Request: fold
Amino acid sequence: PTDVIEYANSVKQKGEKQNKKNVQENAYHVLAQAYSNLRTYDSSAKYFRKALDINQLTKDNELRGIIKHDFGYSFYQQSILDSSLVYYHKALELKKQYGKPKQVATTLNGIGLVYRMRNNITSAASYYKEALSIYESIGDKAALSVMSNIATLYNLQNKYDSATALFKKIYAIASTNKDVNMMFNAQVNIALGLNYQQKYAEALPIFEDLSTNPKVKQIEDINNAVQYGLGQSYMGVKAYAKAVPILK
Reply:
């Protein structure tokens, strides 16, 4: 993100100097995303709003839908869920006007994530399934991510067999596609499901194997989940001396 900010600032300055509104709008949007990735949310919000303001002049409604989606995701990252839903729904309304199914599915999945965070399982499942239907109809690999979200809902509903079966299906497809990140994601969630069922001895070797994989350590979210699950498993088998430093 820091490299992106450097380039985007250069583009922004040229756009402002030459009064090219579309250049400014795109630069502001990229800056907003970069600051959001850095978790510098005040700067991110400032540039999202600048992008939306100038969009009133460019009248690029397709891009407006994308910007609103990304602003909604930024609020989701901060757990400001009401604002996230507002921007996601506005994005969805705009995106549906342009007949680009992948963009629509992306926002449907985002809305599903927010409802899951609010523990509204029924609404989350509805939006996930609509997103999955679109991704599958166009043969987009993002379908795996939505399948993973649906499987996570099964775990939250204590439907562990359904969750495990779906995560195994995800792993098999990801393996065929050589999608390493999704393979790790499926393995982590299968092991977490075992922890949820207090089958710690079964989960432990999965987590131990993943925790020593150098590729896992390079993926922050997955590595965090592995460490958390590993600590849980050690606690479950009463290996407290190993569990405590990991959880700390």
Summary: The two ends are 28 Å apart (CA to CA). The chain has 14 helices and no strands. Residues 83 and 190 are 32 Å apart (CA to CA).
